[in-house]
Amino acid sequence: MISIRPFGLGLWSLLAVSMRLLLRINTVLILMRLVQAQLFEDPWDQLDQCSCSNEDADVPVGFLSLVGGALKVPRDYNKNVQPPGKPTIVDIGFIVNDVLEIDDDAYSVTLKMEMPMYWNDSRIQFNTTLLDQVSPNRWLYIDPNWKDDLWFPSLVVQNMQEFKTITSIKSNEKLMITEIPDKRFHYVAMHLIKFTCGLKFDFFPFDIHLCSMKVHLDSPVEELSLDFFHGSHLKWGWANTTTILDYGIDFEPLSIEALLETNTMFNGITYQKSISGFVVKLSRKVSVYLFNYFIPSGLFVVVSWVSLIIPPDAVPGRVALIITTFLVLVNIANTVFSSSPTADTINPIQVWILACIVFVFMTVLEYAYILFMMRRVKRHILMANNLKKNKPRKSSKVYTTEETPKISTLSSARTHSLTSPIPEHDYVDCGTVKEFLTDGAKNNRMSNIRRRLEVIRNRFLDWRSKVRSALSPILDDLLDNFQPDDTNLQLLMANTDFVFFWIMIMSFMIFNIIYWTYYTL
Predict the structure, then answer these.
(1) Exposed / middle / buried, residue 353 (Cβ in 10 Å: 0-12, 13-18, 19+)
(2) What is the mean pLDDT of the chain?
(3) Are 221 and 272 in contact (CB under 8 A)?
(4) How far is CA 222 from CA 182, 268, 484, in A?
(5) Per the domain annotation, does 297 fall within a domain?
(6) Where is pLDDT greater, at 268 or 419?
(7) Which residue has the higher pLDDT, 518 or 28?
(8) Are residues 273 and 310 in the same domain?
(9) Which partner for 404 in 213, 243, 312, 400 could form a disulfide, CB atoms 3.0-4.6 Å apart?
(10) Collapsed DSSP state (helix, strand, coil) of residue 433
């Protein structure tokens, strides 16, 4: 019993010393972790990380997955404060994949495009082991949701109507770490951007529009600056338009003067901000309107000239052709005026349609003139025929029929002047003067008036007989040379159509030369 007790006491002492040593080592480890936690914090320790393998289905080919400890963010990190060092340069590129819509009524352009951005944040430390694996063809692919916990360039699209990031089953956003020391972060996503463009339709459909797609950072240029990234992956001005548009699309860079813009704040302070972007050049496809409106309306003008070949006496056929052509052009004009975009002045296509209507209307007026002349000539011929049938005798005296009362001779009437009194026995009453007198009239004044009216009547009849006698040879000649179906009348109408036909052709050619030279050159 005495020999066993010292041995038991020694074993318990050894265990106690070992426990104290383990406690001290654990305390040292805890203190080291506390010191490390005070210097750095990792906000993504709770996130599930994928294994470092290119075979992971969530990682695109050519990228490495992020493993724990790749980024270290200081405790006092503030994502709302831009990185130190002024100015912070953000490189940006533009990859236009498609032009989806150009709305003339809404004055807007919708693009499907990518805007890759590159920047650096010196406050963030990287895992050097993983950075050694980064190369120009292999970048670190990290969770794009982490951009909500990092400083991110606040990009603003000017004149923006709608901005949407395209997503499918998974988000197509990519946030990566590059091999470029001063451009460690790279972000790219597919966006739908709808922005306003100041479209002017004064030269529709020969209009050309320049729509500026501008972006800027909402900070003075001394703090944040935008530059173009001239990487080999950038497809500048490339567009694969899958929609049928009225415009041809081209892209141009912004001018140097447009890269800086001066803004004035509400308190009167002015500052300059950095601008980046490109210009979308829209050239309307004229061929659609050429085949739909210009050529058909011009052909209708030519068809109206065919009526000049039809004989003028074929009234139904000629009128039907001209009026039908005129009404068709009016219908085309209604379609053009209702479908044309709003402009400050009349546009070229409206000028063309109105000119075609005027040319056809001139044909209508020409045929109306011919019908008027034909009717007038025929009327004169009929009057001449009537005069020929009732041609007066060569005697200067006029004899009345049995129904009319007898009147005094012209010789006895000429023997008295208008002022001299006429004897009562020289007067023979007539039907015209009887209307003014009664059987028992004895007023001398009324008698003188009756006598004078009778003298005037006799003199007029004498003058008419002389005129008929003098014009009789001329009327005979007209009746011999102009008949209703005479070739001279037909020749006159044909010459009128022939002259007007060439006048219309020359006028239409001159109009086309002036029109196309002014609006297309």
Answers:
(1) buried
(2) 76
(3) yes
(4) 18, 18, 96
(5) yes
(6) 268
(7) 518
(8) no
(9) 400
(10) helix
Q: What are the structure tokens assigned to 228, written together?
A: 């173009």
Which span out of 136-145, 233-242, 316-325, 377-386 was modeled with the highest average pLDDT? 316-325
3-state secondary structure of 413: helix
Q: Measured in whole angstroms, how far is the alpha carbon of residue 12 from the centre of its chain?
A: 100
161: nearest Cα among 239, 219, 107: 107
HSE (side-chain half, CA atoms, 13 Å) at 183: 17
Rounded CA-CA distance 119/404 in Å is: 123
Question: Lowest mean pLDDT: which of 62-76, 84-98, 332-346, 397-411?
Answer: 397-411
The pair of structure tokens assigned to 308 is 């000049």
**CATH (domain of 279):** 2.70.170.10
What pLDDT was estimated at residue 442? Answer: 52
Task: Give the chain's domain count.
Answer: 2
What confidence category does residue 299 fall into, taking pLDDT thresholds of 50, 70 and 90? very high
Q: What is the mean pLDDT of residues 358-368?
A: 94
- Closest to 241 in 3D by CA, of 280, 295, 291: 280
- When pLDDT is cut at 50, 70 and 90, the band that residue 390 belongs to is low
Least confident of 144-153, 322-331, 352-361: 144-153
pTM higher than 0.90: no
Regarding whether 499 and 360 lie in a shared domain, the answer is yes
Distance separating alpha carbons of residues 191 and 194, to the nearest angstrom: 10
SS3 for 124? coil
Range of the domain at 114: 63-284
List for the chain the helix, strand, coil content (%; round to 5).
Answer: 40, 20, 35
What is the C-alpha to C-alpha distance for residues 138 and 271, in angstroms, rounded to an integer? 40
Give me the residue label for tokens 């005479």.
486
Residue 489 lies in a domain: no
pLDDT at 322: 93
Point out which residues pair with 64 in neighbouring strands.
140
Cis geometry, peptide bond prior to residue 484 (ω within 30 degrees of 0): no
**C-alpha angle 150-187-97 in degrees, rounded to nearest 5:** 150
Q: Which of 244, 239, 216 is nearest to 113 (CA)?
A: 239
pLDDT of residue 478: 57
CB 300 within 8 A of CB 329: yes
Helix H or strand E segment including 393: none
Same domain, 230 and 308: no
Clarify whether residues 163 and 93 are in a common domain: yes
Rounded CA-CA distance 324/303 in Å is: 10
- The residue among 67, 76, 78 whose CA lies nearest residue 44 is 67
Claim to verify: residue 335 and residue 251 sit in the same structural domain = no
Is the pLDDT assigned to residue 391 strictly greater than 90? Answer: no
Taking only the tens place, the pLDDT of each residue in 2-60 is: 444 444 556 677 777 777 777 778 777 777 766 555 444 443 333 333 333 333 334 34
